[in-house]
Design a protein that fits this description.
By secondary structure, the chain is of the alpha/beta class. The chain has 9 helices and 9 strands. It binds SN-glycerol-3-phosphate and calcium ion. The site of SN-glycerol-3-phosphate has 11 residues, from strand 2.
Length: 242
């Protein structure tokens, strides 16, 4: 059965990358959540998509230039009524210990080369004993290799925007157990060949009904979607198949 990962939480209806969006994803019946991490000036891992806080919070400036206590004062639910803080990764991992979900941590270190980010994330994943339920992904494939070298017990998955030739060979060459392609970047055949080679395929960001049907139909490993409610509803049609 294709697993459903809620992209930045249940971000179609709740403020992205907030505890509210993660809790609602769990309520919706998602199998996992996807989130993005950046590092504050004082080295705290925070869950936020952009390098700057401007788009998703009440503040301004780069995450790397703000202290954790400064970021915690910001509101990450700017379009909503209830104020929500930017979560720390610690907060999310503590919550993970109360459920059985999987969590895809995307290292957002493509633009800002955060020193030691991989090691910090791995230390926390081990502290909370979540190695079996975490997938570390990144567009920065050097970071994927570093993560694997530091923690071979944690699954890694490179992210792709464009299609690549024989992605399973590439994944195997960097010891990644999965790949996370843009949903339009891979044909059904390539996805099936990749899965047949033992590599998990979790396309992002799958929001249209038609695309969800496509991936459920070929029993893709997982989809990453903003709308886990819709995905759970559509997936029901495929659950009774042998
Ligand atoms: O992990 C899949 C997806 O989240 C990658 O793109 O920009 O939404 O972080 P983005
Ligand atoms: Ca992401």
């Amino acid at each position: 059965m294709t697993l459903i990962f809620a992209h930045r939480g249940y971000s179609a209806s709740y403020a992205e990358n907030t505890m509210g969006a993660f809790l609602e994803a769990e309520k919706a019946g998602a199998d996992g959540v996807e989130l993005d991490v950046q590092l504050t000036k004082d080295g705290e891992i925070v869950v936020i998509h952009d390098e700057k806080v401007d788009r998703t919070t009440s503040g301004t400036g780069f995450v790397k230039d703000l202290l954790f206590k400064e970021i915690r004062k910001l509101n990450a639910n700017v379009k909503g009524i209830k104020k929500e803080p930017v979560p720390s990764l610690i907060e999310v991992l503590e919550w993970m210990n109360t459920n059985k979900l999987r969590c895809n941590i995307e290292l957002k270190n493509g633009l800002v080369p955060y020193e030691g980010m991989e090691e910090k994330v791995i230390r926390l994943v081990r502290k909370y004993d979540l190695m079996d339920r975490i997938i570390i992904s990144s567009f920065n494939h050097y970071s994927i290799v570093d993560s694997y070298r530091m923690a071979p017990e944690i699954e890694t998955a490179p992210l792709f925007i464009e299609g690549i030739y024989m992605p399973w060979i590439y994944a195997q060459s960097i010891r990644a157990k999965g790949i996370h392609p843009k949903h339009s970047a891979m044909s059904d055949n390539i996805i099936i060949n990749t899965m047949d080679s033992g590599i998990a395929v979790r396309p992002y960001t799958v929001n249209k009904d038609m695309d969800m049907h496509r991936f459920f139909n070929i029993n893709c490993t997982a989809i990453i979607t903003d709308d886990p409610v819709k995905a759970v509803r559509i997936r029901k049609q495929y659950e009774k198949r042998p």
